[in-house]
């Protein structure tokens, strides 16, 4: 899954599981396809399961070539993901086959060794891997009801962002790499035309994105197309080459003659065909789509890893908001001299002294916060990752249309990157900046994801994927943990923590409101203005994200609540035997697992500690 802000950014369809990298920097093991396929079944003893995982992982890499680049596999660098009805039918057939084989292994293992060699019993690690593999496949199958390929378009999910992500990843160190890149740019119009065909198919069946998201996407794409070619992000792979360098000349020609005309066609379809039919008002959420109700049910299950109704989650969010409102009143009286909720939020939202002055200050504060957290972390974790983390500004083309920050996972000897939005810096609060770095980098996303990626005996799909509720729940959990770690310097920092907690609690209310209760965008914005300290421009961007990425926002608060509950139960059961570093290590030690598996792992750890082990 993609986990984006506060969370992680990954390419392509935002419902796809994408946590990517290999085990940290340096030469390491074989980075080619053969080596990656061996790592696909790392730690797996069951022969049939190991073979299934290798086949599935090769399939994943071949049909997601940009993802393959991120994990250091370059066998598919000349291609794009296949689109269209035939490609989707083939993918469904492959997924069905993998799922059937996985269930057969599960059934055979349950029958015992007498069922035959292919169905021999599984050890505990293999059983965990198989359970997670089946859950991932079942989730992918269930969410096909959404048909996102036919309507999902946003500032973070469109034809241009596919190309820009590629441009950012490519290193042109050899002629073959330049040739592969040229091949991709040359074939990009065919990819765009496939996008257009899919969107027109959806439009003909009443499947279309919402109006505001489409309008913002059109504006972003048109701004990019208006950028002079030599200043375009599309030339990022050759930006350091001389203007007469043959590779730069060829790529510039392809951008001018192939890419720009294709994107121009694409934008015209969004603007002239989709926008007039786009969803708005009470139909802005999934409820405005013919597949909406079934889709939302599947997405809730996917993102929180267990079945819950929209009504349950909505009420949970309202209860959390009521609790946090009371905390705002108490902390506001101490830090700001007023216990009135509206006055606290207004002060946080409008006092210029609480905001940054310029973009450089935003970025510098992010770096300082990251370094302070890195220094404190060893006292709270028995194991920390080797992979480094960097701070970078969100690219200019994207910054006005996206959230306040996101984390991009390491890939192919690249560090993890905490991207901070420095656009309109006077709207970026100082009091939220420290907790933001905690969530996105250390001990939040970077720590959790890098530990997962560096697991030596976990198969690739576990190191490179996982459940949203675990990833985002962990990052939100660390926002309060950071106070215990001594990382907040004042009650203003703690108001930032409270603001973020309110923000995530409001997501439970707003996401379910939009997609299950017929809320309008305006209702969602007003609710968040009344219960969070986020600036209005950030709230508008956030609501647009929830509209275009249904269900993902539910995972944060739901996962945090579960982690806090598990920790409280462990502390109560173990008393003086409780070890916070040990608790964190067992939580993070198997990757981003589902909540049922996490509960079992923590329960077994508590039992072992209680027995004196």
Automatic annotation (TrEMBL):
Pfam families listed in its UniProt record: DUF885
Region annotation Disordered: where it falls in the sequence: 1-31
Name under which the protein is recorded: DUF885 domain-containing protein
Organism: Enhygromyxa salina
Source organism phylogeny: Bacteria, Pseudomonadati, Myxococcota, Polyangia, Nannocystales
């Amino acid at each position: 899954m993609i986990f984006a802000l506060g969370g992680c950014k990954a390419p392509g369809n935002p419902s796809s599981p994408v946590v990517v990298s290999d085990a940290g920097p340096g030469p390491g093991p074989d980075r080619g396809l053969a080596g990656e396929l061996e790592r696909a079944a790392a730690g797996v003893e069951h022969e049939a399961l190991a073979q299934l995982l290798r086949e599935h992982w090769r399939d994943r890499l071949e049909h997601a070539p940009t993802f393959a680049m991120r994990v250091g596999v370059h066998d598919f660098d000349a291609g794009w993901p296949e689109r269209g009805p035939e490609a989707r039918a083939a993918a469904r057939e492959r997924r069905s086959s993998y799922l059937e084989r996985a269930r057969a292994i599960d059934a055979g293992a349950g029958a015992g060794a007498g069922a035959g060699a292919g169905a021999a019993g599984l050890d505990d690690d293999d059983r965990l891997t198989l359970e997670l593999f089946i859950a991932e496949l079942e989730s992918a199958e269930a969410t096909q009801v959404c048909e996102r390929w036919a309507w999902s378009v946003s500032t973070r999910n469109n034809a241009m962002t596919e190309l820009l992500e590629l441009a950012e990843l490519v290193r042109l160190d050899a002629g073959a790499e330049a040739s592969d890149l040229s091949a991709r740019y040359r074939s990009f119009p065919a990819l765009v035309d496939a996008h257009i065909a899919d969107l027109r198919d959806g439009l003909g069946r009443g499947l279309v994105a919402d109006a505001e998201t489409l309008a913002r996407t059109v504006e972003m794409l048109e701004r990019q197309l208006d950028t002079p070619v030599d200043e375009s992000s599309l030339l990022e792979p050759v930006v350091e080459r001389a203007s007469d360098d043959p590779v730069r000349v060829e790529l510039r020609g392809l951008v001018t003659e192939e890419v720009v005309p294709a994107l121009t066609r694409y934008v015209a379809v969004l603007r002239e065909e989709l926008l007039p039919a786009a969803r708005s008002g009470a139909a802005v959420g999934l409820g405005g789509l013919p597949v909406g109700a079934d889709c939302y049910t599947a997405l809730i299950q996917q993102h929180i890893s267990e079945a819950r109704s929209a009504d349950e989650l909505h009420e949970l969010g309202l209860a959390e908001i009521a609790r946090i409102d009371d905390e705002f009143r108490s902390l506001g009286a101490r830090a700001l001299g007023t216990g009135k909720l509206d006055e606290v939020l207004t002060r946080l939202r409008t006092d210029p002294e609480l905001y940054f002055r310029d973009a450089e200050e935003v970025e510098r504060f992010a770096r300082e916060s990251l370094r302070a957290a890195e220094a404190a972390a060893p006292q709270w974790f028995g194991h920390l990752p080797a992979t480094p983390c960097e701070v970078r500004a969100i690219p200019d083309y994207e910054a006005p249309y996206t959230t306040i920050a996101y984390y991009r996972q390491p890939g192919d000897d690249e560090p993890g990157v905490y991207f901070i939005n420095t656009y309109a810096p006077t709207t970026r609060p100082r009091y939220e900046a420290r907790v933001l770095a905690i969530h996105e980098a250390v001990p939040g996303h970077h720590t959790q994801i890098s530990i997962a990626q560096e697991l030596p005996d976990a198969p690739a799909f576990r190191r490179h994927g996982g459940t949203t509720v675990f990833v985002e729940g962990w990052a939100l959990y660390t926002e309060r943990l950071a106070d215990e770690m001594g990382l907040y310097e004042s009650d203003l920092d703690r108001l930032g923590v409270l603001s973020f907690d309110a923000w995530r609690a409001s997501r439970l209310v707003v996401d379910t409101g939009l997609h299950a209760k017929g809320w309008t965008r305006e209702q969602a914005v007003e609710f968040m203005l009344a219960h969070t300290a986020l600036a209005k421009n950030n709230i508008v961007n956030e609501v647009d994200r929830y509209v275009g990425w249904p269900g993902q926002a539910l995972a944060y608060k739901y996962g945090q609540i579960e982690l806090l509950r598990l920790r409280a139960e462990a502390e109560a059961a173990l008393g003086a035997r409780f070890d916070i570093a040990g608790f964190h290590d067992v939580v993070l030690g198997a990757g981003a697992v589902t909540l049922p598996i996490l509960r079992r792992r923590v329960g077994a750890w508590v039992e072992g500690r209680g027995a004196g082990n």
